[in-house]
Amino acid sequence: MPAAQSLQVLKKGMVIKMKKLVLIASLVMLSIIFVGCKKEDGEKVYVYNWGEYIDPEVRKLFKEKTGIEVVYDEFETNEEMYPKVKTNAVKYDVICPSDYMIQKMAEEGLLAEINLENIPNIKYIDPSLLESSEAFDPGNKYSVPYSWGTLGILYNKTMVEEPVDSWSIIFDEKYSGNILMIDSVRDAFAIALRYLGYDLNSTNEKELKEAQAILKAQYPLVQAYVVDQVRDKMIGGEAAIGVIYSGEAIYTKRENPDLEYVVPKEGSNVWIDSWVIPKNAENKENAEAFINFLCDPEIALKNFEYITYSTPNMEARNLIEDEDIKNSPVAFPDQATIDRCTAFKYLGDEAENLYNEMWNDVKSNMK
Questions:
Q1: What is the mean pLDDT of residues 295-300?
Q2: Is 209 exposed, middle or buried (0-12, 13-18, 19+ CB in 10 A)?
Q3: Same structural domain for residues 174 and 128?
Q4: Backbone angles phi, psi at 48, to 5 degrees
């Protein structure tokens, strides 16, 4: 082949290769755009959440879509979580406290304002829950609702004969050794205060002492003070009665049809757990991407089916195929039930210290 012709063929081949490279590069760029602008490998978001409170598959899906790895820790109570964030013992990018704790942390300057422009999926959150959130987060500056529910009584119909509609049953000597009491200072005092007819956000020392007295009297009747463990114990028939969050009740009823859940007539706590970003977060945009991902209806549905706690995501609720669950009075209580429930408020350091001192005195019987 002549040299000139050979050179022409070579140039033509190079042009074809260059066009292919440009096409490949274009496809790569488009794929990045369509999966949501993947981050470089090595990006992380540090998450601190309640135990068993997210579908592990969701964390994997988030990394697949964004390239951001979820580094994940768990806590059992708000009071366990708070000092770690307060003291900077560990730096997290996104955490999931309850209503009153969000108010406390915001007032103490521990939270960063969320850029809602980075949370477009917030449009799927029920406006009524965003309105309720303003009670502890005015303007919804610091939090995005993740789940909500009530606190009530779970009982085994084969072990409890009489109708259950009052907190009185967890103080009844008839069920000594068969009662699982919640190991949470605010929840325990809320139960006692409502049973006595008082506000569950009371700071009146006389009322709190009355509540403490009945909690102390209850101690000999209690099989165990628990939080997450109540679920397995009630499913296994290890106790007749347990204090439980509504989301756990949905799961237990599914596993053991002998179990029933009720919000007592005296009233209880209605709570909202929400995602917040600590002020010292080192990956704030990753945190906002994570929150936005969890607000996607398909993801919210996936989480609801796994954790069984009520979703605030309206579109996710519409996607629930099981009509019994979609219309469950446990998962989505009626207005009459909600009206006899109250959300927790942050009561200030003085009252909080008093609650803790009294609760520690109650639990000192356990030593």
A1: 98
A2: exposed
A3: no
A4: -125, 115
Interatomic CA distance for residues 170 and 220, integer angstroms: 12
- Whether 201 maps to a domain, the answer reads yes
CB of 317 within 8 A of CB of 145?
no
CB 45 within 8 A of CB 95: no
**Residue 112 shares a structural domain with residue 5:** no
How far apart CA 307 and CA 96 sit, in angstroms, is 14
Whether 325 maps to a domain, the answer reads: no
Pair 354, 246 in one domain = yes
Q: pLDDT for 231-275, tens place per residue?
A: 999 999 999 999 999 999 999 999 999 999 999 999 999 999 999
Q: Are residues 187 and 231 in the same domain?
A: yes
Maximum Cα–Cα distance across the chain: 107
144-156 vs 44-50, strand pairing mode: unpaired
117 and 25 co-located in one domain: no
CA 210 and chain centroid, separation: 31
- Tally of domains in the chain: 3
Closest-CA residue to 61 (of 303, 281, 249): 303
> Domain range for residue 16?
1-32
Q: Which of 276, 274, 262, 273 is nearest to 341 (CA)?
A: 262
Nearest-angstrom CA–CA distance, 300 and 319: 10
Distance between CA atoms of residues 209 and 362, nearest Å: 11
pLDDT given at position 31: 39
CA distances from 135 to 115, 198, 343 (A): 20, 20, 9
Nearest to 132 by CA among 355, 310, 278, 317: 310
